[in-house]
Amino acid sequence: MIILGISCFYHDSAAALVKDGILIAAAEEERFTRKKHDQGFPYEAILFCLNQTHAKISDVDYIVFYEKPLVKFERLLSQHLEKFPFSYFSFIKAMPQWLNEKLRIRSIIKKKLKYTGRIVYLDHHLSHAASTFLVSPYEEAAILTVDGVGEWATTTYGYGKGNQITLEKEIQFPHSLGLLYSTVTAHLGFSVNNSEYKVMGLSPYGKPAYYNQFKKLIDVKEDGSYALDMSYFVYHYKMVMPSDKFIEEFGPIRTGEGALEQHHKDIAASLQKLTEEVMFKMINHLHNIYKTDNLCLAGGVALNSVANGKISKNTPFKKVFIQPAAGDSGSCIGAAFYVYNSILNNPRKFVFDSCYLGPSYTNEYVKKYLDENNIVYKEFKNDKELIDTTAKLIHDNNVIGWFQGRMEWGPRALGSRSILSNASNPEMKEILNTKVKHREIFRPFAPVITQEDAHDYFEMDTDAEPFMLFVYPFKEKVRKLVPSVVHVDGSGRLQTITRRQNFRYYSVIKAFEKLSKIPILVNTSFNIRGEPIVCIPHDAYRCMMGTGIDYLVMENFLIARKDNPKDMWDSESIAKD
Amino acid sequence: MFRRIWQAIKKGFLAFSHFMQKVVNTILLTIVYFVGVGLTSLISKLFGKHYMELKLDKDAKSYYKECMSTKKVKEEFYRMY
Ligand SMILES: [Fe+2]
User: Fold this and answer.
1) Which is deepest, A57, A61, A475, A572, by most CB within 10 Å?
2) What is the pTM of this model?
3) Chain B residues with beta carbon closer than 8 angstroms to that of A173
4) Which residue on chain B is closest to A80 by alpha carbon?
5) What is the rounded end-to-end Cα distance, in angstroms, of chain A?
């Protein structure tokens, strides 16, 4: 049985394919179309999923859409009915896409894919809930989903047991912890639905000086349920998010180019503190009800890795599972599994323990690409040569584009499409920013560490964090050893890796350890600011040649930038938020 | 030469038709907004009906509401609503 899950038309469109209860393929559309956060119909991602399974569209038994479009439309109309006539401009802006695409999803699926089979529509937060619990390692768990908004729900909780999920309670729009975070993101001059993680990264630079003012924005009950004081927000009827009252309270909206002042950092710190407080209240409430050790989280707010890293200290839950694409893109996985496991009542047999679900390219493919484009390269004789050479190049402070195997699922590069460099070099953050990333200087780079060494370097309460979803403090004594991956508050958003999960990636770190005594590398996504992570060999080569990446290790081939001196494009000129 | 002029005219027409389409859409949507949405909204407000809960309830014990997502019969999953 083949089930195709689809999420699209909001942001980060994606598709996933489940065959006989096993997740075979999943990818975001942006990687193929090269449009960051592409929200269009995920045609390319679907084609990839079908190809990966050697299936035709006629083999698909169910297509599952991750939300109920008509219920969402009803919520939209309610907003306009409530706020008439102030919502005029937002009505004019939003309606064409609703009429042309969102309400026509059934005919779009049938027409674009030439599909004649069954189509299922799940509630948005049910897709989120399923995307975490049904692929978690737990037989039983409490489930919490928190995002901007789905149809009406913005937060839901419930429990999962076996192949069934029961969502018991929800909080409804316009009251939304995710939209509160997005409002502050917009107020601080960052892009909504994209740069919330920058606010999180900025927060350790500030003090929660605005915390009491933030408390005025939200009424939080003992059980963690909350409502926002909507006089501070206008996102329910305008194209902007904060109201004039919000601006009076927190100062003018920062323009993207404006300087980041201390008060911006304090606002970020205050918001982060409040978000954590509300999350922990909700999670503690869940523990009171369900009395289980296991928690499954999903929704955009579950990507708040700083809050995630503090769950075990602030709540009684012993184990937390989050799937790497916890936001809307990952819902297509949940949609597909919910039909297979819960609706069709098949037992669960898949645990999400590897993020390598995207396309891969053979050595023959890569060699042909390199030869056809007259690219100078060297072919490694064996794995040992590849691993030792890469480790030595990293140790010599080169910046390496690392392109190996199947592309990662989710927003983070986790060792397939990564940029790797020397974490012990105090200059590395600056080198990476100058050569490749052109990022805001406050943003930290992330460490990857071999799993068996993680406890020597981090104060963490779990053994493995394979998906970079939890921030933990570095141990005091090691911070000076890896200065380029230690954030200003002494923390790091780590990825742990084992030999079984990714042999070459793991082995390069081990070989680097032999040279430096440190089992940690800088791991950052293989892309230029403003572009999606690279997907095909050409993207990787183009990225290296347009930036200051020194070497590209692509499958069995080593390509040096200095041997291929023609700039293909100027990455700086297209760098954007 | 003629081909190029023809191409330019074609491009101009296309841009104009897109522009006109936008204008017509905006006019139609404006009518829908002020007549359809507007009248319904005004009548509802006369009867005190609200479509969203915007107010805080400081006395309430909880803001949680019943979630119906998993309490559906199988047929409902095939519907867009
Ligand atoms: Fe969502």
Assistant:
1) A57
2) 0.94
3) 52
4) B37
5) 41
CB–CB contact B57 A227 (8 Å):
yes
pLDDT in tens, B23-77: 988 999 999 999 999 999 999 999 999 999 999 999 999 999 999 999 888 889 9
**How many angstroms separate the CA atoms of A327 and A12, rounded?**
9
Q: Cα of A327 to ligand 1 centre, how many Å?
A: 6
In a domain, A434, yes or no: yes
Amino acid occupying residue A322: I
pLDDT score for A574: 47
A79/B40 CB distance under 8 A: no
Same-domain status, A90 and A112: yes
* Nearest Cβ partner for B62 among A68, A173, A225: A225
Burial class (CB in 10 A: 0-12, 13-18, 19+), A206: buried
| Number of domains chain A is built from | 3
Partner-chain residue, chosen from B51, B60, B69, that has the shortest CB–CB distance to A82: B51
- Say if the Cβ atoms of B80 and A169 lie within 8 Å: no
B62/A221 touch (CB, cutoff 8 Å), yes or no: yes
Residue A309 belongs to a domain with what CATH number? Answer: 3.30.420.40
Kindly state the average pLDDT of the residues A308-320: 96
Structural domain boundaries enclosing A229: 172-322
A437 falls within a domain: yes
Domain contains A147: no
What ipTM describes this predicted complex? Answer: 0.90
Residue range A528-567, pLDDT digits in tens: 878 999 999 999 999 999 899 999 999 999 999 999 976 5
B52 and A169 in contact by Cβ < 8 A?
A: no
For residues A514 and A394, give the distance between their C-alpha atoms in angstroms, rounded to a whole number: 12
A404 plus A545 within the same structural domain: yes
Ranges of each domain in chain B: 23-51
Contact indicator for A156, B69 with CB cutoff of 8 Å: yes
Question: Following CA atoms A499, A503, A508, A510 in sequence, which dihedral angle do they give, to the nearest 10 degrees?
Answer: 20
Q: Are residues A336 and A391 in the same domain?
A: no
Residue A144 within any structural domain of the chain: no
Q: Do residues A339 and A436 both lie within one domain? A: no
Residues of B in contact with A221 (CB under 8 A): 60-63
Percentages of chain A per state (helix, strand, coil), in multiples of 5? 40, 20, 40
